[in-house]
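call fold target=Amino acid permease
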Amino acid sequence: MGFWGPRKPFESVTVHEEGRRLAKTLSWPHLIALGVGAIVGTGIYTLTGVGADRAGPAVILAFAIAGAVCACAALAYAEMATLMPTAGGAYTYSYAVLGETLAWVVGWSLILEYSLACSTVAVGWGAYLVGWLHSAGITLPPEIIGGPHAGGFVNLPAVLVALTVAGALIVGTRESATFNIVLVIIKLTALAAFAAIALPAFDSANMTPFMPYGFLSHVEGGETRGVMAAAAIVFFAFYGFDAVATSAEEAKNPGRDLTIGIIGSMAVCTLIYMAVAVSAVGAVNHVAVAQSSEPLAFILRTLGHPAMAWVVALAALIALPSVILVMMYGQSRIFFVMARDGLLPRWLSAVSPRTGTPVRITAITGVFVAAVAGFFRLDEIAELANAGTLLAFIATAGSMMLLRRSRPDLKRVFSCPKPMLVGALAIAGCLYLLFSLPSLTIGRFLLWNVIGLAIYFAYGRLRSRTQVAAAPEAI
């Protein structure tokens, strides 16, 4: 047992009791689609405007910086996921390498990441639905399309889409993943159509000044601005490949499928993002883009393509739920593994004998996501979700580096190139982005983990299966 609690033995990481194992139903096309489905979503459809508000045309640079940090983290994830092909992602890696207490902090942060990511996308989906209906001459009552912060009562569209996706996941993982492939194709087609229309309207005047708010994060006019401030929030647009790592236990051929899924989804999405970002801020002045909650559709309407704007908005409505699906899938698996380890109530880790899915925890996740989406602002939710993700990336890169030193004998199906350099860059980049978030967001994140640690010491530590196995006489 180390200073940070017991470590889970490597031999037991992939061994699970009957009735608490996830069914192996996913192949590499499912995993690439899961990655692309999670990565390409609200970040590019809705947060382009938020990023433009913070960095101006240099939001393009912000996308490049966030993508570079994520690429380093993705390489670390690919090595760790193929080394430990079981559910849980960064939580499981931390448990085996860093110790139970740090694993709890990472897992608790991942719960925040995935659930708030789902809520962010649900809010973004609701904005596209309202805009799409408005363009068709239908206006919904303000009381049901925004939370208290927007002068309404509840964001009902966001609540309904979250609950619907939870229901789909309860039906079965393979069925949901196959349906997700269809949604991803629709989404990528819409983004390609947007770039094809907006890129010819590129005007260099819209790119001047390129960096109106500077490079480093700073407070200006009561708002956090700068390229790094934008990178800290558009970072949300890139992560999602960690959900592929979380699916490791359900992969048919983990060694091959996980590597293809993680690296492939990141490569595809980086190319898409750069093309769309250049098209967006080059076609319309960034000030106008920043004021829209549905920037891509807004840009097409501004360029005189209302019909295409309607089609892109419709594609977003159809395809954005794929992000909710993947993130809610990842969240439920983190919850599931923590419960299977005894850190949360064990009854939550029961798997349906019919579908092979954790029905109870998926239902609870859906209700929580719907509640957050119904009452909170998009930018605040996204920033808080980013904090949880950044910590998970740091833990994964650190675990990879430590294992290279302590266990060079382990067979690695995928080996991260120059692991010490890549891991160090991932950690440094994530730390910088973390501290580029608004101080209020960091304060909320710390409060979330204080609450989490209180739960851990009052409940989880006493019932941990690893603690019981290590010192049964002390429990």
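return ok
The radius of gyration is 21 Å. The chain is about 70% helix and 0% strand.
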